[in-house]
Amino acid sequence: MNFNVCVVGAGRWGKNHIKTLMGLEALGGVVEANEKTRSELQSVYPDLRIFENLDEALANGFDGYTVATPAETHFAVAEKIITAGHHVMVEKPITLTAAEARTLKALADEHNVNLMVGHVLLFHPAILKIKALIGAGKIGKLQYIYSNRLNLGTVRTEENILWSFAPHDIAIFQYLIEDMPLSVTSRGGAFVQPHIHDSTMTVLEYPHNIVGHIFVSWLHPFKEQRLVIIGSKGMFTFEDSGDKQLYFYEKGIDWIQGAPVKRDGPSEVIPYEGEPPLTAELRYFTEHLDGTPIQIANSKNAVDVLEILEKASEAL
């Protein structure tokens, strides 16, 4: 069965939704308030239904909606879609506060619709492969995760680096660890603009002696997006800004006759295959427009990430 999805917001990222859903043969319509943007879209997609406001689209019976409007509008737009009884995927951050996210989750549960958040890296084929290999015991007991997400710019004036960069990494941590941290601490510095942090280091302590840290900065001489995962039997590294290879290292510490001994085994490249993350994400959303519950990037994941972000912000 083919489902029709309506994209709300045709800005920079909304255009990616439009193009991807068109490729999936699932694009049904677009809502865009800007007249010039509507005109440009119509010239590219002459047969596409384009609406000036959300109410017009809701009256046309789409199966689901994706929301790619500015973050400050997410709550009101998603609330209207959910209340009308439709499935919806909202780009990150799903809302600007955890309280609003909890409200949307409760509304979605009440109306029996799927609420998904655009944590697109959870659909990266390397992250999916890491998740499967952890589940298969490849690295033994999960012990430590760290993530670096660094670059020079683009500096935001309305949000700090923590809210801009870290949601991706927090979402990945939650996906891999499947538990809430017992404590969240964060430190950083504001150098370009007063009270807006440009660099932060956040430490998350989880149950079962699992620790993670997230280093984010937009004041960095080169781009780095590195994920390192340490287990009792081995380690993974993945650098999305580099060669994009997923490496497994058979390294660690063994206790032999009461003494810690370094285990320095071989490394290997772990192959992974998959479509672009946004394609996989939107395909997953459309596959659940029949009402099948969403497991990845669902409303609980959205709430968890915002609750952790708020704790980190308080610590700053």
Protein model, in words:
This protein has nine helices and 14 strands. It has 316 residues and is an alpha/beta fold. It folds into two domains: 115 residues, Rossmann fold (3-Layer(aba) Sandwich), CATH 3.40.50.720; 164 residues, Dihydrodipicolinate Reductase, domain 2 (2-Layer Sandwich), CATH 3.30.360.10. The protein is globular and about 70 Å long.
Itemize the secondary structure elements and their pairings:
Layout: E1 5-8, H1 12-23, E2 27-31, H2 35-44, E3 49-51, H3 54-58, E4 64-67, H4 74-83, E5 87-91, H5 98-111, E6 115-118, H6 125-135, E7 142-152, H7 161-177, E8 183-189, E9 199-206, E10 210-217, E11 219-231, E12 235-239, E13 246-256, E14 259-270, H8 277-287, H9 299-315
Parallel strand pairs: 1-2, 1-4, 2-3, 4-5, 5-6, 7-10
Antiparallel strand pairs: 7-11, 8-9, 9-10, 11-12, 12-13, 13-14
Helix pairs in contact: 1-8, 4-5, 5-9, 7-9
Key words describing this protein structure:
globular, 2 domains, Rossmann fold, single chain, six-stranded parallel sheet, 9 helices, Dihydrodipicolinate Reductase, domain 2, alpha/beta, 316 residues, eight-stranded mixed sheet
